[in-house]
Amino acid sequence: MTDQTSDERAVRFGRPTHHYTLVVAEDGRFLAGTDGGLHLTTEVSDAILWDQGPNSLTHPDTGARLNLVASGERWLLEDETGMPASCSAATGFALEHGPEHRPSEYLDHFLTHGWVVLNSIMSDGIVESLERIACTDRYKDREPNRDVRQICQDPALVRVAVEPISLWLSRQYMQTDEIRLAHTPGIGVLTPDDGARAVQGWHSDYPYHWGINAAGKVPTPSGRTVMGVQRIVCVSEYTKHRGATAFKLGSHVLDAGPPDDWGVARDTYRPGHRAEHGLPYSGPDADVIEAPAGSVILFDTRTWHRAGLNRSNEGRAAILMDTTPAYIIPYSDTSADFHAVTESDVHAELNAREQHEFQELMVHRFLGPAGPRSVIGTHAELTRRLDTPRP
């Protein structure tokens, strides 16, 4: 633990040359192709992927080919005879930026390794909107808007939270469809390091919180029961130089926290720790995932990791979205932020699928028979009372 340079193994992802296209109806359902024909669905599978040409779409599995006819900002679909395609929507479809690989391929990697990268899965328009909120990269000279909740400033932040393939992978990996956001998604900015301030040490994320001084951490290994998947959205390009997250990839299988001599989070935040002990471990037994802006890194939250050291002269922005099964108590109350979104202009810009998914992720309910429809929230007056210092 010295002020050494970053010697972690770099796992690099270059910008892809190919992306599939998602064909999305006005209500948010996806156009899927199977041997039985076309249908609209909210379910994620390889069947919702299309290859887009200049004036056509081709389904990679069935070979179905559809012609594209512009209709304002949307597209009408015709079969090769010029007739409207089955499942055609009167209002047309949106063509959305899709993944580099099939969902099934991502899932195989995730189940095998405990992590996966959805390389550049967010469109450039989404990334630019996130940069604007964060005031980084193309908007580094802009001042943050502190008068409006981040989540209500632009629909891009909600759309990132409900990105369908990363959510499908999270559900499959945690073996449950009932998942929630443990906290409201927000953009954090890692500012340039000054050489002296406290840095984040090695730890495992919520609800395990191994390596962290936190109440309610998981006390024992959880085995096949996975209690969390973290989703990191790279708003800025992720590189070692700009402080990309460092991992010990594969450490989730140990089902235990990082060793103290790596410099764990409960120690590194203590005043004077960096001056006395140096930086947390950054040698070749650790890994840094380097990926383009707009990529999403998913990993089992037991995985040891820490924030990198930003050695550049610009902020590095990212979104962390800790996703847990519904039976885990949330890290913080998300109901107020969800309610704020429903009262804002952002909500009207979301389609029906996005609105429903965001509600499912953000609203925590009692799961027992006594109150299956009751929303769990905070008690403001009682919170103030309990926060009063003891005499």
Please tell me about this protein's structure:
The chain has ten helices and 18 strands. Helices cover 20% and strands 21% of the residues. The chain has two domains: 21-97, no CATH class; 102-362, Jelly Rolls, CATH 2.60.120.620. The protein starts with 8 loop residues before the first strand and ends in a 5-residue tail after the last helix. The protein has a six-stranded antiparallel β-sheet, with no helix packed on it. The model has no long low-confidence stretch (mean pLDDT 93). It has helices spanning 103-113, 124-134, 155-161, 164-174, 265-268, 273-277, 335-342, 345-349, 352-362, 380-386; strands at 9-12, 21-24, 30-34, 37-41, 49-52, 56-58, 65-71, 74-78, 94-97, 115-118, 179-181, 187-190, 229-234, 246-247, 287-290, 296-300, 305-306, 316-325. The protein is α+β, with helices and mostly antiparallel strands. The longest helix is centred in the first third of the chain and has 11 residues, at 103-113. A hairpin with a 6-residue loop joins β6 (56-58) and β7.
Quick recap of the structure?
With 391 residues, this protein is an alpha+beta fold. It is built from ten helices and 18 strands.
